[in-house]
Structures are given as structure tokens and as C-alpha cells.
Design goal:
Elements: E1 14-19, H1 27-39, E2 50-54, H2 56-66, H3 71-83, H4 95-108, H5 126-135, H6 139-146, E3 152-159, E4 164-171, E5 178-180, E6 183-187, H7 192-198, E7 208-210, E8 213-217, H8 227-231, E9 234-240, H9 264-295, H10 299-304, E10 312-316, H11 322-329, H12 335-344, H13 353-356, H14 363-379, H15 381-388, H16 396-400
Parallel strand pairs: 1-2, 1-9, 2-3, 4-6, 9-10
Antiparallel strand pairs: 3-4, 3-8, 5-6, 7-8
Helix pairs in contact: 1-3, 1-14, 2-3, 11-14
Length: about 425
């Protein structure tokens, strides 16, 4: 990607980790990170100086950024956390809570759609607040910055009041705030409130008040998901997505015949995909195209284009359908959630299971996603080793060949070609 950085920003030879949103799908990121931890050279205990997260990816990002140990130790802690999760660690799933929230939403119709005491939501994610308060030592973030282990960390949230994407960041003193169309960067000391705001999926989880504004899930209105990492000084980015439909093999082939109108869950699933996936995919496509364009420009002409610059990137995304995986695991949910998903059409992989894939915080599903992420990353182990290697150890021809590492679907993997 190219970026026209403001004059006050500084570019560093720093690697950035970008973790997208996606609710329970973020377990896939843990598998990828486990592979990266194995591939990280012993000489690079902290391969990512910049960590950016959105929604559930913000939980992973802040746990990594606040851990006092090495990257490998932080990933091990993250893995243990996810493997011990259940739905009840994230939101209350009993009948009393679910029906009470439905009644509160119904009552708001007599009050101009506004709740009288707390923000409206279908689910109460109080358990998540308790969990992240316990497992993430937010005070360690500044210590890691002061010690040089970390340059910056950011989480994204969407302002309901302003209708814009806000990147809350904590980092070195030389970093400046920024403002672009419908997005901005705001320096702050990150707290549990920023994390809860970033993970507040609209209608499902309650919005969070920070200062004088209410914020919701950071994936909403996030027009350029990779941009915060670049504004914070990254020269290369490693992106872990949660989409399984970016490969051209999925476009325009085997179109299914609709047997009925879309269910509520199918509509909701597509809205979630639009929020959590589409912006990242569009940003990645833009990055690929501009990198190719800048790579074709000779060095003298490239200098005249400053401050535009090419960004080295690696991207790992699921090689299997997460919707189908979720459709097979819905039975592990508590009874109240199974009723909710069944009544809205979210129990089949024919379309509705996409919504369930964001809320299925149960070990059989999470464990399968973690294993898939690990295998997808290890499939590209040689290129990832090169990406993680210190820049001084790379020859120029290798550097040019690293733009846009991709994981192919399993149906294409046998030909031995690297995805472009």
C-alpha cells in the first residue's frame, strides 16, 4: 500500500501486526500466531514493534502488547486463554438474561428507541469485561514502550456520535495524531473501556461511553484497516484476516439457487461480513495494486514520489469455510443460544451459519479454528521465515519477492505455486 503520510509522521523499519475483527473467528489468529512464534528467529524476541487490533482482534493485540515476556511467551499465554474460553466467559447466555434484553429492547420502542438505564443490546457481555480486566495488565503497555519492546499499539472503535472510525493509540512520544476522511488517530492511555468499545458488535453488545461519546465495534466504518499501522511508522505489515472468500476461485462459480428468501441470520451474517471483512479485503487489494505500481517505477522517479512508499506485506487468511465449520458446531451452544440461532436460521451452513460463526465461543469450534490457522501459516513457513528475519539478513531479490504472501485454498494447494 502507498500512504501519503503527514509531515509530522516518521517512517521506521518496524514490523506491524494487524489483527482484524470477527468475534469467535479471531481464534484463527491465535493459530497463525502460534506458527509465527515457532518461526520467529531467536535473535528477534519481539518481531512486531507495532500491534494494531480491531474488535476481537483488539483483545489479542492488547494481550500481546501488555505481556512482559517475549513474543513466544505472549502467544503461549494467548493460546491458553482461548482454549479455556466458553460462551459464558464472553456473554451471559441464560434464558433470564436473553429474554430480559429482548424485553428491554421492546420497551425502548416507547422511549424513542433509547434505553432508560444502559445501552441497548441483545446480549450482556459483562463477563468479557471481567475477563479482559483480569488477564490484560494494561499498565504493562507503557512499560514495554519505555523498554523499547514496543513502539505503539492501537485499537479501533467507531464513534456513534461522529460516525467516524477512531484509532486509539499508545506509543512513543514522536508519534502524532492524524485525521483523514471519516477516520482519525487519537493518542491516549489504553484501558479496558477502549477494548470493550472496539469489541461492541452493533445490536449484539452494548456501546461504551468514552469521554462524551459512545463507541461501538471498530470494524464498522473502518475504511482503511491497515492505515493505523502505517501512520504509526510501519514499513512492513503482517495481516491476519478472518475471511474465507478472498480467492478468485470463489467468485462467480457454482452460484447456488435460492430455495427461499434470506433468513434473519443470513441477513445478519452478510451485514457482519460487510463490517468485519469487506474493508480489510478492499484495503489489501489496494495495497497489492499500489505496491506493484511502485515496484515498476525506477528508483529516481520513486524518489520524486515521496512521501509515497511501498509497504512490504504478508497476509494469512483461512483456507476453509468458517461458515461450514460453525454450522457443524452450533450444537455445542447453551440451550438459549441454540434457540436464538435456530429461530433466526443460523444453524445451517447454507447461509445462516455465518452469523453463528461470530458468536460460537466454544472449544470444539475455537480449537478447530486455531488448528486451521496454524496449518495455513505453516504451509507458507519458508516465506514467513524470510518475512520475520531481520532486514539486514535479506538480499534485495528476496525483499522484492515478499509482497503479498497469500494462502491458497486446499483445492489449489497441490500445484505447488505460491498465491499471488
Amino acid at each position: 500500500m502507498s500512504v501519503n503520510l503527514p509531515p509530522t509522521s516518521q517512517s521506521h523499519d518496524a514490523g506491524a501486526l494487524v489483527l482484524s475483527g470477527g468475534g469467535a473467528r479471531a481464534a484463527y489468529q491465535v493459530g497463525v500466531l502460534r506458527a509465527l512464534a515457532e518461526l520467529t528467529p531467536e535473535t528477534e524476541p519481539h518481531p512486531f514493534k507495532i500491534v494494531c487490533g480491531t474488535s476481537a482482534g483488539a483483545v489479542n493485540a492488547l494481550l500481546l502488547a501488555s505481556h512482559p515476556g517475549t513474543f513466544k511467551e505472549a502467544v503461549a499465554r494467548l493460546y491458553d486463554l482461548w482454549m479455556g474460553l466458553t460462551v459464558d466467559n464472553i456473554y451471559r447466555s441464560n434464558w433470564t438474561s436473553l429474554l430480559g434484553n429482548i424485553l428491554t429492547i421492546s420497551a425502548s420502542l416507547f422511549n424513542q428507541g433509547v434505553a432508560r438505564r444502559r445501552p441497548l443490546a441483545l446480549l450482556d457481555n459483562g463477563p468479557l469485561r471481567e475477563l479482559v480486566t483480569e488477564v490484560i495488565p494494561f499498565g504493562n503497555i507503557q512499560r514495554n514502550i519505555d523498554d523499547g519492546r514496543l513502539r505503539a499499539v492501537s485499537v479501533n472503535a467507531m464513534s456513534y456520535n461522529q460516525g467516524e472510525s477512531v484509532s486509539f493509540f499508545q506509543g512513543g512520544e514522536d508519534l502524532k495524531e492524524w485525521r483523514r476522511f471519516r477516520r482519525c488517530g487519537e493518542r491516549t492511555a489504553l484501558t479496558v473501556e477502549h477494548l470493550m468499545a472496539s469489541a461492541a458488535i452493533p445490536t449484539l453488545f452494548p456501546s461504551v461511553k468514552i469521554g462524551d461519546e459512545y463507541f461501538g465495534d471498530g470494524a464498522v466504518r473502518q475504511l482503511a484497516p491497515i492505515s493505523p499501522a502505517l501512520h504509526l511508522g510501519a514499513s512492513r505489515v503482517f495481516v491476519v484476516g478472518v475471511s474465507d472468500n478472498r480467492s478468485p476461485v470463489h467468485w462467480g462459480k457454482h452460484r447456488k439457487v435460492a430455495r427461499h428468501s434470506p433468513s434473519l441470520a443470513q441477513i445478519g451474517g452478510q451485514l457482519f461480513n460487510a463490517a468485519f471483512i469487506d474493508s480489510l479485503e478492499g484495503d489489501l487489494e489496494h495495497m497489492d495494486r499500489v505496491n506493484l505500481l511502485l515496484d515498476a517505477v525506477d528508483e529516481k522517479a520513486l524518489a520524486d514520489l515521496a512521501p509515497l512508499r511501498a509497504v512490504e506485506s504478508a497476509v494469512i487468511e483461512p483456507s476453509q469455510s468458517l461458515d461450514r465449520l460453525a454450522g457443524r458446531k452450533v450444537r455445542y451452544l447453551p440451550p438459549a443460544l441454540r434457540w436464538l440461532f435456530r429461530s433466526t436460521g443460523a444453524t445451517t451452513s447454507g447461509g445462516g451459519a455465518s452469523a453463528a460463526s461470530y458468536l460460537l465461543f466454544e472449544k470444539p469450534y475455537l480449537g478447530e479454528l486455531i488448528e486451521l490457522g496454524y496449518q495455513d501459516a505453516m504451509w507458507e513457513r519458508d516465506k514467513l521465515r524470510n518475512f520475520l528475519r531481520p532486514r539486514t539478513q535479506l538480499v534485495e531479490t528476496q525483499q522484492k519477492g515478499l509482497f503479498g504472501i497469500r494462502v491458497k485454498p486446499a483445492t489449489e494447494a497441490s500445484n505447488g505455486n505460491t498465491p499471488s
